[in-house]
């Protein structure tokens, strides 16, 4: 394949990925808002925030069954709304795979995309696994239609036999024994790495820096998921780790928004709307809205968001803040002092602000360099990607 063809194929893959994102982002935005509403109802109803985690997650499995939903009472309306939001996050890989494949081959890619997306979900691939599964399905379907199509009355055999065999069976085998296995192994190694630091109290600040960097590195992807699951996994015995996640996660939205205010000419209408929407979502600890920015210019986004998350989490560890409730920076403000003393909220805000300011400075410097290289034309977002928010 020539160099031009490789470049052309990569551009097609990026457009397909952005198409998947345009379907997925409303899913996570709506889910995040519902989670926040459920949390808010819980708080204003006078229930004990110190048992919030047990209340919301204790019967989680039951809510995902027929009997679980049938037994819900009005007294548990907060938990119902919370889990309606959570269910949106459970199907992110399926959405990404199906609509990435759809952008490549149309309707024939949707059903196989959902199936391979489910495999990606079960293997912990999150949206990254969904994107790759969508690419695999799309190009296998295209190959099948081009090389194995039958004519006349046998055309339906292609749709109902050849495409499922190639896209689902062959695609599933490819994903399981290559990408899926790789992502799973990486996630297992990262979890073991975090566990090794967590078991040494003297490495508390280092653990915070690493978790803060991880949780914002891929804006809701598998690396961040490792940090989130690790924090929640030890929440019953140690309140520190989930604290690091919850102060770091919203930093990305604040960095993007402040950088936009400083360098507005670097954003076109699509980029501006992406930043604003993502800022709102990050208020509710939903970061996936920033993915178009990450995929567009990772060399700008990654250094700034990782720095912001790592610094904020590291400072929270330095001040020994133990967040009693699993809520993001903004929503946790009324509860930070609980169990931490009267100065905790000051330290909480200071930790967040320092991280965001450093991240914004890095983002702005790198963005202005890119803007100069781009002859003053907007950097975010490239409308040729087809990304629609």
Topology summary:
Elements: H1 3-44, H2 52-57, H3 60-63, H4 66-70, H5 77-90, H6 92-105, H7 110-122, H8 126-148, H9 155-198, H10 204-217, H11 222-233, H12 240-248, H13 251-262, H14 269-283, H15 291-296, H16 298-318, H17 329-332, H18 344-373
Helix pairs in contact: 1-5, 1-6, 6-7, 6-8, 7-8, 7-9, 8-9, 9-11, 10-11, 10-12, 10-16, 11-12, 12-16, 13-14, 13-18, 16-18
Structural features:
18 helices, 0% strand, 389 residues, mainly alpha, 2 domains
Task: Report what the structure shows.
The chain is 74% helix and 0% strand. It is mostly helical. The chain folds into 2 domains: 3-186, no CATH class; 188-385, no CATH class. The chain has 18 helices and no strands. The mean pLDDT is 87. α7 (110-122) packs antiparallel against α8 (126-148). Its main location: membrane. This is PTS EIIC type-2 domain-containing protein.
Please write the string of helix (H) and strand (E) elements. HHHHHHHHHHHHHHHHHH
Mean pLDDT comes to 87
Give helix % range: over 70%
The tally of beta strands, per DSSP, is 0
Oligomer: single chain
Which shape, going by the Cα principal axes?
globular
Please give the domain count: 2
Number of helices: 18
Percent range for β-strand residues: under 5%
- Profile the largest sheet: none
Which residue ranges are poorly predicted, with pLDDT under 50 across at least 5 consecutive positions?
none
Distance between the termini: 34 Å
Which structural class is indicated by helix and strand composition? mainly alpha
Please compute the radius of gyration using only Cα atoms: 22 Å
């Amino acid at each position: 394949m020539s160099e031009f063809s490789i470049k052309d194929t990569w551009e097609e893959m990026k457009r397909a990925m952005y198409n998947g994102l345009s379907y997925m982002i409303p899913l996570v935005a709506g889910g995040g808002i519902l989670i926040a509403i459920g949390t808010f109802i819980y708080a204003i109803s006078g229930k004990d925030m110190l048992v919030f985690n047990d209340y919301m997650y204790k019967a989680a499995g039951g809510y995902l069954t027929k009997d679980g939903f049938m037994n819900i009472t009005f007294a548990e309306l907060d938990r119902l709304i919370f889990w309606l939001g959570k269910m949106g996050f459970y199907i992110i890989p399926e959405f990404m795979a199906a609509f990435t494949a759809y952008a490549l081959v149309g309707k024939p890619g949707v059903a196989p995309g959902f199936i391979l997306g489910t495999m990606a979900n079960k293997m912990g691939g999150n949206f990254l696994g969904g994107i790759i599964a969508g690419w695999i399905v799309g190009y296998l379907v295209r190959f099948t239609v081009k090389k194995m199509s039958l004519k006349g009355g046998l055309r339906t055999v292609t749709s109902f036999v050849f495409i499922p065999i190639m896209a689902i069976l062959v695609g599933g085998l490819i994903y399981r024994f290559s990408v899926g296995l790789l992502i799973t192994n990486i996630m297992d190694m990262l979890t073991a790495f975090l566990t090794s630091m967590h078991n040494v109290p003297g490495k508390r600040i280092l653990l915070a820096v690493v978790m803060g960097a991880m949780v914002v590195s891929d804006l809701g992807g598998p690396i961040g998921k490792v940090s989130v699951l690790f924090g929640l996994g030890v929440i019953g015995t140690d309140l520190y780790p989930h604290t690091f996640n919850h102060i770091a996660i919203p930093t990305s939205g604040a960095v993007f928004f402040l950088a936009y205010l400083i360098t507005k000419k670097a954003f076109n209408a699509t980029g501006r709307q992406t930043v604003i929407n993502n800022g709102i979502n990050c208020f509710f600890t939903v970061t996936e809205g920033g993915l178009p920015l990450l995929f567009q210019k990772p060399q700008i986004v990654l250094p700034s968001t990782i720095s912001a998350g790592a610094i904020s989490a590291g400072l929270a560890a330095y001040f020994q803040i133990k967040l009693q409730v699993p809520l993001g920076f903004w929503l946790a403000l009324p509860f930070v002092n609980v169990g931490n003393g009267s100065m905790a909220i000051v330290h909480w805000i200071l930790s967040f602000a320092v991280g965001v300011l450093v991240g914004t400075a890095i983002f702005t410097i790198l963005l202005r360099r890119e803007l100069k290289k781009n002859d003053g034309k907007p950097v975010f977002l490239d409308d040729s990607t087809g990304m629609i928010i």
